[in-house]
Amino acid sequence: MKVLFAAGDPKPERWTVPIQQLLPEAEVFNWDPNGEPVNADYAIVWQPPEALFERERQLKAVFNLGAGIDGLLKVANLPRDIPVVRLEDAGMSVQMTEHVIHQLVDISRNMQVYRDQQAAGTWKIHRPIRRKDWPVGVMGLGHIGKRVARSIASLDYQVSGWARSEHHLDGVTCYAGTDRFDDFLAQTRVLINTLPLTDATRGILNADTLAKLRPDAVVINVGRGEHLVEDDLLQAIDNGQVAHASLDVFQSEPLPADHPFWQRAEITITPHVSARTQRDDTLEQITGKIRAHSQGQPITGVVDMSQGY
């Protein structure tokens, strides 16, 4: 069995050495753009070059180093007749949940007021919030979205969830399909996006969506930058429909120094850190699936290419 690693890491041995340790029965190769075909059975990739699929013609499956495969789908010659397997959690869902809850609590409990008071040397207690005034809506109910929704519900916030297909979560009111999207938005003041990026979800955080949220809305985007129509968000902030946005992902990363988001006090910016891939967990998951697949066993995380996730 031959395994090819192609993720553009300047220190690929951080990956290839533990892959070899976890799969001692395999030959492990690092992608060499100037090399010869290795006739790999499996490829572990992140935004691979088209040349990989031109050269490697015997692949049995491709394993993506991330839960979102939008970058992989941009590769024009990605084979459509072999399984593409996305990363399932690998320590990301708990990080994403921590990040989202931090942003939610910081905004809903108006912690900026206390930071400002500290800077001014002021001791003043403000009225506690009413959680019913902060209904939360989670877009996307995959593995990460479910954990986010359940965790926020456990803090006694009113939580709704929306996805393409039906879901049932204790403590969460679930909506499904485009015909229930407006109903979901009407219940939501804090909109949290965890959707995968597909043709159907690109630009979903737009003027129409933002206008249907409850007044003084908050947007927390931890999905993809391409989900958000940036000018529409700025306009929604200017007209008072959106009170605050917490953004971890952007259409252009790093965010350009002259981008207007930097100058807006109503926008919290983090540099795509809401959930980082945990190398050990990731490699244990992927190598376990490679071994299972090579032995003819079923594996989870196989992408439905018609849906993009």
Molecular structure report:
The chain folds into two domains: 107 residues, NAD(P)-binding Rossmann-like Domain (Rossmann fold); 178 residues, Rossmann fold, CATH 3.40.50.720. Helices cover 30% and strands 17% of the residues. The strands form two sheets. Strands 8-7-6-9-10-11-12 form a seven-stranded parallel beta sheet. It has a five-stranded parallel beta sheet with strand order 2-1-3-4-5, with helices on one face. It has ten helices and twelve strands. It starts with a strand and ends in a 15-residue tail after the last helix. The relative contact order is 0.14. The protein is of the alpha/beta class and 309 residues long. β1, α1 and β2 form a beta-alpha-beta unit.
Distance between the termini: 27 Å
CATH architecture of the largest domain: 3-Layer(aba) Sandwich
β-strand number: 12
* CATH homologous superfamily title of the largest domain: NAD(P)-binding Rossmann-like Domain
- Portion in strands: 15-25%
Give a concise summary.
With 309 residues, the protein is α/β, with parallel strands linked by helices.
